[in-house]
Amino acid sequence: MILRPLTSWMLVALLCTTCVFAEQRFSTRGLVLKLDRSHNVLVVSSDAIPGYMEAMTMPYSVRDVKELRGLGPGMVIDFTLVVDANASFAEDIRKHKYQGLESDPLTARRLKLLNQMANPATVKSVAVGEAVPNFTLIDQNRHKVVLSRFAGKVVALNFVYTRCALPNFCFRSSNNFGLLQRRFIERLGRDLVLLTVTFDPLHDDSRTLAKYAAIWKADPNNWHFLTGSTDDVRRVCDLFGEDAFQDEGLMNHSLHTVIINRKGKLVANLEGNEFSAKQLGDYVQEVLANGALEPTPFAK
Fold first, then answer.
1. Nearest by Cα to 154 from 102, 119, 204, 191
2. Which of 34, 28, 30 lies closest to 285, judged by CA?
3. Could you report the per-residue pLDDT of 82-124, keeping only the tens digit for each?
4. pLDDT at position 143, please?
5. Which of 30, 124, 187, 193 is most deeply buried (CB count within 10 A of its CB)?
6. What does the pLDDT read at residue 177?
7. Any long-range contacts for 51-56 (C-beta under 8 Å, 24+ apart)?
8. How far apart are CA 75 and CA 269, in angstroms?
9. Structural contact between residues 82 and 25, judged by C-beta atoms closer than 8 angstroms
10. Could you give the CA distance from residue 194 to residue 189 in angstroms, rounded to a whole number?
11. What are the backbone dihedrals phi and psi of residue 10, each rounded to the nearest 5 degrees, phi first?
């Protein structure tokens, strides 16, 4: 047999074929919406992958069910998306570790320690799957707001303080809820309630919160900005692991966004600000549609 050299068009065709079937790997992040361990699938509201796909909600299969160990709905994860000629799957799935607001993680640890020292009688934080204890605070209209009155509705709750000067922290948290209000305008009040709690009650009284709420065009009947006595606010913060400490007139603080289902159980406690408003809304949509999304135990 005579071997002939590859012509230019044959070489191009061979290279193109190789490109089509070459494995591609993308590092990405997303918010877990659902898990189906029996089929090795998780549904994730994913970040965009530049040059490959837009931000979207989609199911990802895993080749080893152990990849799903320790995961649950409402968790932010980092993972690798692998795409080859025949399939795509997720691997190297890790719960995203939020390092706190400061560039130095030790500062965040000191914040928690200082908070514990200043408030030794803190209450136990609510774990995912547990019922949230009742509490009462005062909203921007100076009305008492009792958590138990929202039984049968999904509650989204976050924390801010109105003097926060950093646009990617309290401002972003409020903006996320502003976008939730727009996305679920038809269901607000009927199926969904928004609660924003200040962790600075000494400065954020009802009048101050009313001005702050006006910035976001908040529906006062369904998006409540809450304050109260120092002890009452501290208790609510402790329920969800929210840390805050005065520092030269401003406050060092953590960030938590909480979702409570219709049965009054905590189904997500998102730490930090490294998820998008769309991802938060996608998770709220799942809770509205499917009720309790409590993580199922991993089958050994």
1. 191
2. 34
3. 998 888 999 999 998 775 544 444 555 565 566 556 555 567 8
4. 97
5. 30
6. 97
7. 52/24, 52/26, 55/276, 55/278, 55/279
8. 8
9. yes
10. 9
11. -65, -40
